[in-house]
Amino acid sequence: MLSIGPQTTVHTHTGYEYYAKEFDGFTHTHLEGVGCTGSGGNILIKPILNKNVETTLLKSKQYASPGYYEVSFDNGITASMSVLDNFGVEYYTYPKDIADKGLFIDLSFALSNRFIAETHTIEENKISGWIDTYTTCHGGIYRIYYALQFSNFNAFEKLNEHQYYVSLKADSKSTEVKVGFSSVGVKYAEEKLKDSNIDSVKRASDQAWNSLFSRVTVQGETERENLFYSLLYRGLQAPYKISEGDSMYAAIDGSTKKADFTVYHGWAIWDNYREQLPMLSLLYPEKYKGIVKSIANLYRYGKKDWATKHEPSPTVRTEHAIAVLLDAYEKNYSLDLLSIKDSIIAEVNRLNFNSPDKALESSYDLYAASKIMSILKDDQLATQYRNKALEYKNYWEKDFADLSRDDVDRMQARGLYQGTIRQYRWFVPYDIQGLKNLIGGEAQFIKELDQFFEENNYNHANQPDLQVPGLYNATSQPWKSQKLFRNIMLDTVVQNYFNNNSKGIDPYVGRIYQNQPKAYLRTMDDDAGTMSSWFVLRSMGMSPANIGTPVYYLTAPIFEKVSIHFPNDKKFEIVVENYDKDHFYIQSATLNGKELNQNWLRHEDIVNGGELIITTSAVPNKNWGIENTFVTEFN
C-alpha cells in the first residue's frame, strides 16, 4: 500500500514520467497504470533550500531497483527511498553551503485534485493522522492512516491548514524520514516507525522482492529475461496487504474487523481478472489464498462495482469478481461461498444489459453465478442464471452477427466501452462452442478469426479482445495462436486502435512490449498489472482458456527453460528442445515422459509438479494439439 516515488511535472497516471526533468517532490501512494487520470499521489514531501517552497528540483541522474529509488538534482540535493511492506525510509542530503534547509510537507496533495479531508497531530518530531481521498475516477473514497518521523529535526512551521515547513538543525547535512502506513488506525502506523535506516530497509526489500521473482526462473536470451522480470515486477504491484500483525483490518463499510486470513486490497478486477489474478493464482498460491478470500470478503460489507465511501486504500473497480471466485474454487482454493450467497444474488440482480458489450459482460457473470449456485446445490437459481446467461445468443445475433454495418470498426459505437463491434463480438469465453455455432460452425469461425487479424482489427492497447489471439487453440488450427502470441510479445505488429481514435487514424507499427521507459503503446494502461501478466504467462508457454475453468492452453515459451518453484517444494519445469529464439511452433510435447498430443493442461497438472518437454520448429506441425481439443461449452 505504501509506495514512495517521485512526483514529476508533467506526469503519467502513476504520477511519474521518466523523461520529465522537474520534480514536484515525492508522494506515497501509486497504482500501476490505472484509468481516468490515475490514482493516489498522497502526501507530498519536497526537499527545499532557504525555506523556499518553490525550490526547483531538476533531475541530473537517477537509479532505481525494486523497492528502492534514488535521484540527484542540479542544486546539490539528493534523495533516496526504500519501502518494505507498509514501512518506508526517505533520506535527503543537502549542499554544504546552504544554512537553511528542510522539507515542505503537503498533506492535501493527491493526483487530479482528489483530496477530500485530513486531520493530523504533531508531537515533537512526528506528525500523524489520516487522509481521505477520492478513488480512481472519483468512484469512492479511501482513508489512509499515516505517521511521519524526522531526524535532525528542528521545528514544524505551519504554512496553511494542510502544509508545513520542517526545518532541520543548523549543523545538519541530511534528514531521514520514516513513514508508516495503516488502514486501521494511527496507532498501527506509528508502530511501524522502526529503529532502522535506509540501508537495512533496502536490504530487506531486496530480499523480499528476490523471493518473489525467484518463484519463476527463466533461461534464454538476456533481453527476454530482463523483459520477463520487468513485467513480472509490474504484475506484482497490487493487491497489497492491509491487515495488521494482530489480524485487524478495515472493511469497506468503515468498520474495523479481525480476520483469520491475510487481508488484501487495491482492486482493479474488471481489468486484471483476465490475466493478473490468474497469474497470481498459479505462481503465488500461498498469497493468493488470502487474496481470493479478501475478494469474497468484499461481499459481506457492501461491495460495489466501483469503490465504496469507506475503502481502506486506493482501489479501482471489482466487476467480474464472481468469475474470480469461481475460478479460485475450481483451482481448489478454500472459499466459504455459502456465507456470501445472498450478496452474490444481489450483485447478479444489479447486472446491466443496456449496451451490447454490457450484455455480453453481464452474461459472463451470469455463467459464473450459475456455476456457483450449482456448487451451493441451489438447482433452481443455477438453472435460472444458466438460462439467462445463454440469452447472450440473442444479444449476439442482434448486434454482433452482421459485420456489414458501417459502424463495426468505430471505437465506442452503439455505446460500447473502449472497443469496437469487431472486438467485443468474441467475448463469450465460457461458451466458445456456442459462439462457433452462432458464427456458422468451426470453418466459418476460423475464417472470421483470420479476417480479424489479417485486417489488423485486434487491439492490444486495451482489454476487450485480449483473449482473442488464443481462440485458435479451441479449433483445429492451434498453431495460429502459437504464431500470434509470439508476434504480440516480441515482433513488430500493426495497431490501429487507441482510446481516442478509430481504425485508420495514425496507426502504430512496432513492438508492443519493450524493456524501456516507453514500455507500452500509447493509451495502453497496464491496468494494475493486467497487460504485463498477459506477457508473463504467455512467455512461459501458458494462457488461461477461460477464467472460471482451470485449464491453460500451451504454446512455445520464449525461453529455453522455465522452472516454477512452488512453496510446497514441488517444481514444474518446461524444457524446450530444438530451441531457437525464432522457433515458436510446437512440433511435439511430452508430460512426465508420456507423449502429449493435446494443447492444454489443467491447473492441477502444473501445481502438482512435473516436467513438460516441448519440441519446437520453424514450421507448424498442423497435426499437433488437435486431439482432444478443449473447447468451453455452456448449455
Automatic annotation (TrEMBL):
Where do the Glycosyl hydrolase family domain residues begin and end? 189-616
Name of one Pfam family that matches: Glyco_hydro_92
Alphabetically list the UniProt keywords. Calcium
Residue limits of the Glycosyl hydrolase family 92 N-terminal domain?
1-165
**Could you say which cofactors this protein requires?**
Ca(2+)
> What do we know about how this protein assembles, alone or with others?
Monomer.
Task: Please name the PANTHER family in this protein's record.
Answer: PEPTIDE N-GLYCANASE PNGASE -RELATED, SECRETED PROTEIN
Q: What is this protein called?
A: Alpha-1,2-mannosidase
